[in-house]
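Practice set, problem 2.
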Amino acid sequence: MATRKSYPSDVSDDEWAFVAPYLTLLPEEAGQRVHDLRQVFNGLRYIVKTGGQWRMMPHDFPPWAAVYQQARRWVAAKVFEHMADDLRMILRVAVGKGPNPSVAILDGRTMQSTPESGGRAGYDGYKRRNGSKVHIAVDTLGHLLALKVTAASEQERAQVFDLCEEVQEATGQSVRVAFGDQGYTGDQPAADAGNHGIELVVVKPAEAKAEGAKKGFVLLPKRWVVERTYGWLGRFRRLARDYERLAETLAGWHWVAAVLLLLQRLATLAESS
C-alpha cells in the first residue's frame, strides 16, 4: 500500500514495537497476511475510536472485510486481553505498586441496543431501556481486569462468579477483596466470590442527609474508580451503543479500547521519565 497521510488514531512507532509481537498470529506467507498488519491494526483503531461503519472505512486502509476478519481472529485469540494484562503490570510497577492487585471493583453498565444487536438485548427496568449490560472488574488504578457482556435484564449479582474467576486468572489469584455497590447484595454473590478466594464487600450509600436535603447522586467510596473507567471507555465512539451482532465482538472492542488507553498511559510515563 502506498504511503498515506496519517490519521490521529494511527499507532505510533513506539506503540507498534510493543504490540506487533502479540498481533503476529501467522507467518508472513500465510494467505491471511496479504495486507500489512500495522495498517490492519490502524484500521481497527480507526473504527473503535471514531465509531464509523465498517463498510464506510476510508479507502486508504486495507479493505474493511480484511480488517474486520483479522480483528475477529485477534479477539478469538484473546491477544488484546493478554496485551492489557501485560501493560497493566508494567504500569502498576512504574507507579510503585505490585504487578498484580489485591483489590478489585465490580460494576455493570447498560448500553443502548441497535437493530444489529437487538436480537440479544434485554430490558433494564432501572434504566428503562433495551440493551446489553457490560460487567467489568478493575483494579484501584482503573485498569480493566475482567469483562462480561450479557442482556441488560441480567443482574449484576449473577455475574460475580464469572467475573471473579476471570479476575483471578488474570492476576494469578492475587485479589483478596472485591468492592461493589448494592447491586451485589446477597448471600449468593458473596458465596460466588468466596469460591474464588475473594471477600465481596458491598459499599452502601451514606445515610440520608439532614432532613430536607435534596436527593441526588451519591458518589460511593471505591465506586468512582470503576465509573472513571467507564468514562475512559466512553471516549471510543464504537462503544457509545451496542452495534454488534455478537456479544463476544462487543467485549472484544472493549478490550481493544482498554489496550489503547494503556498504551497512551505508557507513552505519557515514558515522556515524563
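Problem 2, part (b): a different protein.
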Amino acid sequence: MKKLVYCLVAMCCVLSFVGCDKEFENKANIIRLSYENLTHRFFNGDDVAFYYECQFATDVKFEIMVNNSSTVLHTETASITPGEGILTFNLETGGYEGQALLCLTYHQMSSHGKVVSTHWYEVTITTRGSWYYENEAVNELLESCKDFDAETLAETIEGEYERYSYLKYNDDWSKIIEPYRVIGYDYVEGLAYEKYNFNADGTGWHSVNPAEPDMETMTYDFNWSYDAESDQLTLSGEYNHKWRVTGCNDNYIVLDETTTNGDNLRTILGRSLL
C-alpha cells in the first residue's frame, strides 16, 4: 500500500513538473523601437520609446554605447510585467554627439529556461542648437574641395556661381555656430539671393536679388585677382571684397574671412547649372 502511495505521489510530482514546463513553453517577450522614433535621430535629453508585448515578467537593461566602441555612455534597468505597453528611457549622454547604439537586454523566451537576448538600434544623438547635421553636410563638401591646385585656380575659376552656403564658425573654424544658408537652403528670413560671375579676363559682376518682392536686383561690376601664395581672392571696383580661398573643385569655391568684429564667416559658391 505504501509503495502505491509513493508511486502516486511521484507521478503527481512529475505531472506537476511537466505542467509547469508546458506553462512556460512558447512564451515570448517582444520589445521594439516605437514607430514614432524610426528616424533614429535624437537629441540629448530626449525620451526614446519602446513598444513591448510581454507574456512573462522580465527586467530590461538599457544601455547607450558609442558606435564601434566599448564605451558605455548611460545605463539603467526597468521592470515590465505581462501585457502590452510603452517603455520609455531618457537619452542622457553627458553631451555626446555622433553615432551610438541603443542596447536592450532582456529575457525574450521562456522555453528551456529563460533565454536572454540583446537587441541593438543604431542611432544618431546630437545636442539641440549644435547644428550637427549641418556640420556633417558641409564637412563632406569641404572634404571634396581641400586638395585644390592654387597655381591653376585662376585658370579654372571662370564661370557663374551662386551663394550656396553662408555660415558663421567658432574661433577655430571647427563648428558652425550660426547657419544663414546651408547647401542651398536658407536658415534665416530675408537673406538675399546672390550671384558672382568671374570672366577669364579678370572682370566680373556680383548681383544681389533681395528677398523682398518689390525690390529690384542690383548688379555691381568688379575686377578680380587671385594670389596663389596667400590664397587671397580680391574683388575691387563697384564691389569690393577679400577672401581666403580654402577649398575648390570643379563645382565649388570655399571662401573664408574674419571680419573686423572677429566673426569667422564662410561663403561657399556653387557653380550655376544653367
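Answer key, part (b): The chain has two domains: 27-126, 146-271. The chain is about 15% helix and 50% strand.
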